[in-house]
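Hi there,

I know you've been waiting on this one. I reran it after we fixed the sequence typo, so this is the corrected version. Both the input and the resulting structure follow.
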Amino acid sequence: MLELAELCHICRVVFHRTADRFHWRPTLGSAAEVLAAALPSPDPLLAAPRLETGHRLVAGAVQTYLLTAAGHLGALSALYRAGEVLFTPGMVVRGVIECSARVFWVLGDRADGPEDLLVRGYLEELLSAEEAKKAAGRLGGKSTDLYKQLDNTYRNLKAEIAGRFPGTTLDGLSRWMLGGQTLAKPGEAVTSMYGLLKKHAGSMVTSKISEGIYDYLSNVTHPTLYPTRDLREWVPSSDHPDELVAILHVETDFVERQTAAAVLAYYNALSYVTSFFGWSTDIHDQLTEAIDRLLPGALQNPKVAPAVPSGGPIA
């Protein structure tokens, strides 16, 4: 477990070292530079642009999701150091995979144009603003200053979107549709991520397998009964031989493979971002070396890790 804890910790450290050095600035000739040229920030097409618009809005969404994924991996490291391997890791692994998938969804395929990325960035911002407003209203009531502030932010964002994308309708936004695109649900984003990895990185994870991965991790999180019951091994009681008692049991191999699912999703998301911004790979190479050392063969064999204790590929 300590080796897995070390690897998850390195994932977190590599993110912060990358952010501290490059400050989310695109390099000359990178895809991010092309995006910045096409989508200036502040956005000249907005009458009263906020601080983060254009390419900075897209970068902000990507940065936030990668930061969250790195934080989850730090938490996974702490769990492993404490020996907590039965129940909680699956929830954290799901969080890492979801956040990594959002990075892929926002940046999309290299064939997508700058406006496609901007649309997806705005859909992420709109979802965030609506959820923040909704939570504040339910927790403290709609008469609170916090709710009014968040409601104003939400309304201003919707107005900004309508001004930036002519033809936008309230009906379309209510269905999370903008610029010919629809906001991906969490599971859809995960499936899309594995589709891109299959296309560009040789992943053996099919669409159906990716759905199974997400189904299992979701059932660990929500929860349902079967993931915990699957950990039980019934054995005769030492005190009462005629009775059976349950021992909770998980294979080390499963813990390693579940960790690999999170680490590789994050690794690929960070790889994509590093390439997109054209950054030097020397920091990222430290993570590559750590994976090769602590999860030998994981990067060479794209078919690794069971989604459930009984087996099947997960990354």
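Quick highlight: Residues 303-315 have pLDDT under 50 and may be disordered.

Best,
R. S.
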